[in-house]
Amino acid sequence: MEKEWEKDVISKNFIEQIIEKDIEEGIYDHVQTRFPPEPNGYLHIGHAKSILLNYGLAKKYHGKFNMRFDDTNPTKEKVEFVDSILKDIKWLGADWEDRLFFASDYFEQMYEAAVKLIKKGKAYVCDLTAEEIKEYRGTLTEPGKESPYRNRSIEENLELFEKMREGCYQDGEKVLRAKIDMSSPNINMRDPVIYRVAHMEHHNTKDKWCIYPMYDFAHPIEDAIEHITHSICTLEFEDHRPLYDWVLKELEYPNPPKQIEFAKLYLTNVVTGKRYIKKLVEDKIVDGWDDPRLVTIAALRRRGFTPESIQMFVDLVGVSKANSSVDYAMLEYCIREDLKLKAPRWMAVLNPVKLVIDNYPEGKIEYVEASNNPENEEMGIRKIPFERELYIEREDFMEEPPKKYFRLFPGNEVRLMHGYFVTCTGCEKDENGNITVVHCTYDPETKCGSGFNARKVKGTIHWVSASEAVEAEVRLYENIVDEEKGKLNEDGTLNYNPNSLTVLKKCYLEPAFADVKKADHFQFVRNGYFCVDTKDTEEGHMVFNRIVSLKSSFTIK
Q1: C-alpha–C-alpha distance, residues 344 and 417, integer Å
Q2: Could you give the angle at the alpha carbon of 289 between the alpha carbons of 283 and 292, nearest 5°?
Q3: What secondary structure does DSSP assign to 304-323, as a single string?
Q4: Is the CB of residue 348 less than 8 Å from the CB of residue 513?
Q5: Which one of 129, 365, 371, 509 is most buried, by most CB atoms within 10 A?
Q6: Taking a C-beta distance cutoff of 8 angstroms, is the pair 366, 524 a contact?
Q7: Whole-model pTM?
Q8: 48-107 confidence digits (pLDDT tens)
Q9: Which of 82, 96, 103, 85 is nearest to 33 (CA)?
Q10: Whether the Cβ atoms of residue 273 and residue 499 lie closer than 8 Å to each other
């Protein structure tokens, strides 16, 4: 019979099992994690998994979570990206408290660490070019070849490295390499470059430095300085772990951190690569890194996704060692689940045509009652103006309907949601044959809530008062990738969907929308979940983004 504690162990992911074993065996007396992005672009949904995983582990084991920028490459880094990353992490709810760090804060300590390796005979200055270093490195089946500069004396290496720091050499003229093993089966261990010359201004240290550490050298030092216990990263760093451990061992850090790798989050048919997003932005195919068609965290926030929905998504995906792809429909499922009890269900007409109730008194306005959310009574009720002229969706009327069409057509009766039964009597058209007005009559005895049940109708349609309606722009988003053709063309360029955005300029919403605020979420009855666009909405011009449709192709198994 399975014991309760065994069930508990089985339910833990493999990282939690490692952490608990380390604590039990006394390897660490605390848990400290970090999220270490390079500020060279906006974060995306895959980063959200890493953020929430690292923060969640620290929280679960009553530890600490650090926020640290790995800003060792000034060629691609910007203050804009630093600011956007901090905003994203705060929005997700990961609290670093007072522990905001930059790798560049440790440049002096990293320089001293490199000097220590030189003094131990474990690093040397090399004059080979980048192309030559690559050539000397060997292949997966052939060992590398030692640099002719590998056996320089410690004194000469110290002098050359100091001159590198003083700016005596051009970019690429000299590098500092770790002296490990050119015949190692792991190419990362074949005397990797750990410092290079780069005469560039850094966003944080300005022009103080003209040499910069490489990521594989800097990262373990940063972790050790901050007393990180578990350095959690994605699977592509698995082959780098021996170098990570080598740096910590040679620099003699006590209680060194442990690197643990997990599988990246891959979403089907979305664009996460920074170079692809950058090109979409530069080519003005999207209106920025936060365009709602992207899956950057900023874009998801603007689209209307909530932190809770992303946490739910990350929990459903889980943590594993095997790479796999997740259907985008799972992310959509999570936002529907999160909003179904939170979002008011109000009426909005996106493709309007006027409906005139010919036998309703002219000038009369009455108010009908409606629940703000039928699944959440605590959200209360509202009153909606009802009058002779309304707007309905154009697709809710057809002159010659197909079979099983239960909405308005000449002679058919439907219920106006929260209102009355109406029977269609005909329509008006313009000179091009386009329908401009639909006419009907109403039955005063059939008001919703009156208890009328003498007859049934099969169709119910939504509507908005013509005189009281709020006008808005509504944006409907589809996948930016052409799903039928695949993500990439044969030449490696992105195969984007030219119909990924539909802008509806003149939509009509019920009066309750007049007082909504930016970032508010709603269900437009029968149309989907929407939110106020935080970028383009301004006084007198409301813009709504469709977050997701109402129908889902995803089910929890």
Answers
A1: 16
A2: 100
A3: T--HHHHHHHHHHH---SS-
A4: yes
A5: 509
A6: no
A7: 0.91
A8: 999 999 999 999 999 999 999 999 999 889 999 999 999 999 999 999 999 999 999 999
A9: 96
A10: no
Rounded to an integer, what distance in angstroms lies between the CA atom of residue 237 and that of residue 216?
A: 9
Strand partners, 230: 258
CB 155 within 8 A of CB 211: no
Which residue in this structure is represented by tokens 């197909």?
A: 402
Average pLDDT, the chain: 93
Residue type, 482: D
> Identity (one letter) of the amino acid at 433?
G
d(C-alpha 262, C-alpha 252), whole Å: 27
Kind plus residue range of the DSSP H or E element containing 487: none
Mention every residue, 6+ apart, whose C-beta is less than 8 A from residue 452. Answer: 445, 446
Q: Is 254 exposed, middle or buried (0-12, 13-18, 19+ CB in 10 A)?
A: exposed
H-type alpha helices, 104-257: 107-119, 130-137, 154-166, 215-225, 241-250
Backbone phi, psi, residue 533, to 5°: -75, 125
Distance CA 299, CA 318 (A): 23
Whether residue 412 contacts residue 382, with contact meaning beta carbons closer than 8 Å, is answered with no
Torsion of CA 149, 155, 156, 160, to 10 degrees: 110
Q: How far apart are CA 489 and CA 55, in angstroms?
A: 38
Which of the 8 DSSP states describes residue 528? E
The Cα 222–Cα 67 span in angstroms is: 12
- The answer to whether the beta carbons of residues 500 and 477 sit under 8 Å apart is yes
Report in angstroms the alpha-carbon separations of 433 from 219, 297, 427, 436, 437: 68, 46, 11, 9, 12
Nearest to 479 by CA among 529, 407, 434, 546: 546
Side-by-side strand order, sheet with 123-126: 123-126, 175-178, 193-197, 211-213
Copy the structure tokens of residue 104.
């560049």
Rg of the chain taking only CA atoms, in angstroms: 31
Q: How far apart are the C-alpha atoms of 303 and 546, rounded to whole Å? A: 7
Question: Cβ of 229: how many Cβ atoms within 10 Å?
Answer: 25
Q: Which of 240, 238, 234, 260 is nearest to 323 (CA)?
A: 234
How far is residue 347 CA from its own chain's centroid? 29
Q: Does the pLDDT value for residue 4 go beyond 60?
A: no
